[in-house]
Specification:
Beta-lactamase, elongated, 589 residues, five-stranded antiparallel β-sheet, alpha+beta, 2 domains, Penicillin-binding protein 2a (Domain 2), 19 helices, seven-stranded mixed β-sheet
Length: 589
């Protein structure tokens, strides 16, 4: 071949070699490393977004059928900055210097700023720093109009309480770490919902597009809107009564609580505590005890209100008739312990058990326990009382109410401490720790014909602007006979005649039992320096013979000697009279 032919040959060979190299490179990129480059491309053009679920709202009842908001969501925004982008791009493509960005955001956001700006700019590798939370829409618009590149915002929400402080301990709050108290905490799983996910192709401005096979969308599941059985009117009234009673007292009342419920369904109408707090600004409180719902969360010794359970047990077992008598000398000996009445000198001699309950004699309830044991506090007597307290009336165990509750303690006769002395104390409500909700639920069964209903604060869900009622649960068990129930109502109505009955609205039957308990001091002995006073009762038996329509329980914790009859009964009476009118119960002729 000539030299020219050789040159063409080598040129062609070179071109073929170059073509082969291109083909090999394309094969390597498109076949061998296809997945790698697709992933890198997707990383730039496919973005993943979290779709936030709407937290469920909470509602009160307002009468029988109306619903009013208790906790609602308010639309807000969180503002954040990208220090890395701002610092490294300042002066280019409209990116303002960090000093300018800081100044404009401070001017717009004011006291919404939650960071120290020196900390924001300290690490220029940071790409996301939240600088303000719960920002309203007007501020978001100003930030947008300011054209601050490297500044972003994301939509959030905050909880708002339209009724203010009403039901604060019951409703609770969610703190910055997502930990809740009250309804917010106990029902968090139902309220929170589930966040969704959107994975989609975006344009150069990171705006999601609706095209592309890479699109994946998992819709967010919003939380449930829950309606409570709490009646805002009853709740607000009981809180006002508690506040007035404490503020107008002679002092020494540390806290007050009240429970109002329907004994025929277990539905709670009010669960009130004082002092109160503002759940929208819960962080300003210095005493964490103010957050506690004492109705369900703090067990205590309820004292003589529990004599109701002792008498109901003895009567139901056929061991006691209210007209039976015993000799009251103001005290009685149990083993080596002298146990006496609060009013030692009152009515010495032969009295019946009605009188013993009327005047809340400890000797009467102890004698009732002896009658169960055939004349002494035997293990059989203790086991019988325990069975009624624990298994029938549900004391010393959680009721199953849907909010946070404590268990409490009722000592079994099988335990070393379950001796005759302790059980004698238990007949008048000491030596065991119970919650108000336990006591009120058990008491309700005694006066409603003997039916135990699980307490509830859930009325249903709010769907399409309508109440969707929860399934109505029936009675769980029979605690006492209907005859025992009727006898106990009569006895408690007689007790009322010596405990504030003159202040009831005329024409109504009301029953009540009071209690005053000394508390244990650091040395383990009872002291009257700190006491708990209470009142527990019912009303609403109408002229047509219907069962009692409400149960009211009051608890006062004091720094001095408080008395159930003097301090708690007036509160019970005011709430009881309100319920008689609010429920429009017919008076007896």
């Amino acid at each position: 071949m000539t030299s020219r032919e050789w040159r063409y040959f080598w040129l062609k060979l070179g071109l073929v070699a170059i073509a082969l190299i291109f083909i090999a490179r394309l094969f390597f990129l498109q076949i061998i490393e296809h997945d790698k480059y697709v992933a890198e491309a997707n990383a730039m053009r496919v973005k993943q977004y979290e779709l936030l679920a709407k937290r469920g709202e909470v509602y009160f009842m307002d009468g029988k059928n109306n619903v009013v908001p208790a906790i609602i969501n308010e639309r807000t925004w969180t503002v954040f900055v990208d220090p890395h982008f701002i610092i490294n791009n300042a002066g280019a493509n409209g990116v303002l210097p960090k000093e300018t960005v800081q100044g404009k955001l401070t001017e717009i956001l004011g006291d919404k700023i939650i960071v120290d700006w020196n900390d924001v700019w300290a690490n220029e590798k940071n790409m996301y720093v939240e600088v303000a939370k719960h920002v309203d829409y007007s501020m978001v618009v100003k930030i947008k109009d300011a054209g601050l590149r490297g500044v972003g915002r994301k939509e959030t929400s905050r909880r708002v309480y339209p009724a203010g402080t009403v039901g604060a301990q019951l409703l609770g709050f969610i703190n910055a770490e997502g930990v809740g108290s009250g309804v917010e905490g106990a029902l968090n799983e139902r309220l929170a919902g589930k966040n969704g996910m959107l994975k989609t192709v975006t344009d150069v401005n990171d705006i999601p597009l609706s095209v592309g096979d890479e699109n994946i969308e998992v819709a967010a599941e919003d939380g449930e809107d829950i309606v409570l059985t709490i009646d805002e009117n009853v709740q607000r009234k009981t809180e006002k009564i508690l506040a007035n009673a404490v503020e107008n007292s002679a002092g020494g009342i540390r806290s007050a609580s009240a429970l109002v419920m329907d004994p025929n369904t277990g539905r709670v109408w009010a669960m009130s505590n004082y002092p109160i707090y503002d759940p929208s600004e819960y962080w300003v409180e210095t005493d964490p005890n103010v957050y506690v719902n004492r109705v369900t969360e703090t067990p205590y010794e309820p004292a003589s209100v529990c004599k109701t359970f002792t008498y109901a047990t003895a009567i139901n077992e056929g061991k006691l008739n209210p007209d039976d008598t015993y000799y009251n000398e103001g005290f009685t000996m149990v083993d080596d312990r002298r146990m006496q009445n609060a009013s030692f000198e009152l009515k010495h001699g032969v009295i019946n058990f009605r009188t013993a309950l009327d005047y809340s004699f400890n000797t009467g309830s102890i004698e009732a326990l002896r009658r169960i044991g055939g004349g002494s506090i035997t293990k059989t007597a203790r086991q019988t009382l325990y069975d009624y307290l624990y298994n029938h009336f549900g004391l010393g165990q959680k009721t199953g109410i849907e909010i946070n509750e404590a268990k409490g303690i009722v000592v079994s006769p099988e335990e070393d401490e379950g001796n005759a002395v302790r059980y004698a104390n238990m007949t008048f409500g000491q030596g065991m720790n119970l919650t108000m909700i336990q006591v009120a639920a058990g008491f309700s069964s005694i006066i409603n014909g003997g039916q135990y209903y699980q307490p509830t604060v859930i009325a249903g869900n709010y769907v399409n602007n309508k109440l969707q009622p929860a399934e109505q649960k029936g009675a769980i068990r029979q605690t006492v006979s209907s005859a025992t129930s009727a006898e106990m109502r009569t006895m408690l109505e007689e007790v009322r005649s010596v405990n504030g009955g003159d202040n009831d609205l005329p024409g109504f039957r009301v029953g009540v039992k009071t209690g005053t308990a000394e508390t244990l001091n650091a040395s383990g002995t009872y002291t009257s320096d700190k006491t708990v006073a209470g009142a527990l009762g019912f009303g609403g038996e109408d002229a047509e013979g219907a069962m009692p329509q409400y149960v009211v329980m009051v608890r006062l914790d004091g720094e001095r000697l408080l008395w159930g009859s003097q301090d708690a009964v007036p509160i019970f009476t005011e709430i009881s009279n309100y319920m008689l009118q609010y429920l429009r119960i017919k008076a007896h002729v």
